[in-house]
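Q: Sequence in, structure out?
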Amino acid sequence: MFLFPSVTDLQSATAEIRRWRCGRIVMQAGKLVRVQRQLWCGSVSMAQVWWQSRHGRPDDDICWLDYHQPRGMPGFLTLDYIRSGSSAGYKTFLGACHVLDEIARIRGAQAIVAHVSTAAISDRLLERLGWERHLEHWSGRHWIRRFYDGYPESCLQRYLAT
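A: Exactly. Output:
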């Protein structure tokens, strides 16, 4: 099986993180396992999200976030997909979000955008994590995490495996 390049130390791998247009953050038990390069951004359908939330959710404690930089839009990242096992805790999910913020800082992104299509991720949780409603006149739940006024203080150390 072909494995894509990955890094475990974001501080020493900033050049790689800047070069990868698509990536996957993998967390387990509240700790960063790796940030892995993806060759293309995933296209996830609403049917796939519905099916996986009802029947295909794995029974593990792994959470991953897929993201990409849209072509021609270097100031933005798109959060494409979140996969979370039924045993993955809040710390694991929160850690993945903080790692995504750190990747945005490394890449110099002004914002991260997402179309949240599952009710399992509440509006209240997104607001607590610094996201705002976006494109409210469009159908669906569109959210944005802006960094126009700077990036949050890094708390990456608490999610690194020791």
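The chain is about 25% helix and 30% strand.
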